[in-house]
From TrEMBL:
Gene3D superfamilies referenced in this protein's UniProt entry, alphabetically: Conserved hypothetical protein from pyrococcus furiosus pfu- 392566-001, ParB domain, Vaccinia Virus protein VP39
Presence of the UniProt keyword Methyltransferase in the record: yes
GO molecular function: methyltransferase activity
This protein's name: DNA modification methylase
Organism: Desulfovibrio piger
GO biological process, any: methylation
Tree of life domain: Bacteria
Keyword line: Methyltransferase, Transferase
Domain ParB-like N-terminal: 5-90
InterPro entries: ParB/Sulfiredoxin_sf (IPR036086), ParB_N (IPR003115), SAM-dependent_MTases_sf (IPR029063)
Amino acid sequence: MNRIELLPVSALRPALYNPREADAERLELVRLSLRKLGFLLPLVATTDGEILSGHQRHAVAVDMGAARVPVLRVDVPEKRRRGINILFNRATNDIAVQDTERDMSAALRGADVHSLAEKLPDISPDSPAFFPCMAAEMREVSPLARCNVSRFVRHAANVGRMLARLGVHLPIVTTPDGTVINGVGRLEAAARKGRKEIAVVTLDEDRAELARAMLNLLSMDFRFTGDNADFLRYGAFRRKWLHRTYLGRAFVLPVYRHKRLSDVRLDAAFMEKWKAACGESVLDFGSGQGDEARMLRHAGIRVTEFEPYPADGDTVNREKGRASAMGFLSAVRAGTPFSAIFVSSVLNSVPFPEDREHILRIVAALCTPETLVCAAARGTKSSSWSWFTEGEALSQRASRACNFPLNMEKGVILGDIATAPKAQKFFEEAEWLELWSRYFGSVEAGLSDGMVTVRCRRPLAWHPRELAESLRFEFDLPYPDGQRMGLVRLALKSFSQRLGLDLEGV
C-alpha cells in the first residue's frame, strides 16, 4: 500500500510532457481550494520526484509559501509516464464518461464556490490543517460501499480500477457519516475487487459542499501540441491483439454495402465481383497487421501495403515502419498501377484533422480518374459512440473501458490511457462526406453498421506544393524516443518520378 509523505517542495519537478493547460481563472480556483480546504488528496509523483498528478497544486502551494507538500510516490516505468499522467488528470474527478471539461466548467460555475468559500476561514500553509490527507485512516470498504452504492459511476470505477492495477491507492474523502465527497469510483473499484479496507480522509459537513465542487469539477484543459501531439500520432497503431479473420468494411464495400462481414467468404463468386470492381493491383494504405493484404494475396490479388506504425507489443516498431514505407515507395517509384486503394479503419486513429488531410492528398495523388478508393471509419451512429455520449455501455468490454472524450475536436475520445494512449475520431456523416469531397469529384458516402463509408473516383486537381508538404509530413512521422521516419527525400523522389513532377524543388 502506498504511503503519503510530506516532502519539501524542491524535491519535486513538473513533468515537461504534462498536456494540461492551466489558465489564470482556474489557477485562482486552485489557490482558493488550498486556502480553504488544504490538500485533501496528495500529489502523485514518481520515485525520482517527477509529478504525475497535481502540477497546479504544487505550483500554487509554492507561491503560497508552503515548504512541504503531501506526496504519494509510485514506481512507474518511464515509457508509461505520459499515459499515466493523462490518466491522473482524470482520476480524481467523480464524473460520468460523457462529461467533458466544458461540462465540468459549467457545473463549477453553477456551484458558486466563492460564496461557499466565504463562509470558511483560511488555512495557514504552515499548519497541519493544510494537509488533511495526512490524517487519512483505514476504514472497512463494505459499509462505505453499501452507504454509497446509489451514487456509483461505472466510468469513475474503471479509472479507479486502473489506478489500483498500477499500484496506486489514493484515499477517498467522506463526511463523518460516510457519504463520499470524492472517490466514489475508487470505492466501487475496491468493493468489486474485494478489498477489505480503504484509506479515508474525513471532512466536516461545513466544508463538504465546497470540497465536492473543487475535487470533482475543477479541471484543466488538455492541449496536445509538440511532443504531446507526436505522442498521440505514434499511439495510433493498430493493437497487436486486433487481428482480423475476415475482410474489413472498406474491402467488402465494392461488392456489399451492408452484409455482415463475418459472412463474407472469398470464394470464386465473391472474388469475380470484387475483381470486376477493384481490379487486381491494389493498395492497402494503413494496413495494420496486414491481415486483409494476406487474404487478398491468397486469392490472387497483387497488394501493395503501407503501414508506418506496425505494432511491437504495446508500442510501435520504427524499423518495420521504415521497411514498409520503403517497400511502398519502391512501388510508387516503379509506377505500379493501383486499380483500387483502401483506407480501412485508418482515419479513426489519425488524431488531428490536418494529418487526415495529408493522407487523403497522398491517396488522391496516386489515383487515375478510374481508380476506385474505398474507405470506412467509425461513425457517431455506432454503439461505441453512444457509450461516450449517452452513458453506460451494454457490452461487458465497453463497460469496463477507461476512455473519455476530448474537447480538441468534435467526436474525439482518448483510450488505452495507461499503456499507449490512442485518440479515436468518430465521424458524422456530413463531416465524412465533406472531407472526401475536397479530394474527389465522385463521392458515394454511406452508413453501414455504425461505420461511415465512401466510394470515390476522379481525384480533383491538387497543387504540387501541397502534395510535397504532405509527403514531408507522412514520411517523417514521429516515433518514441524522439525518432522520426526520416524518408522525406526518398518519398519526394519516388512521387516525382511517378508523377513527372519536381516535388523536391517546391
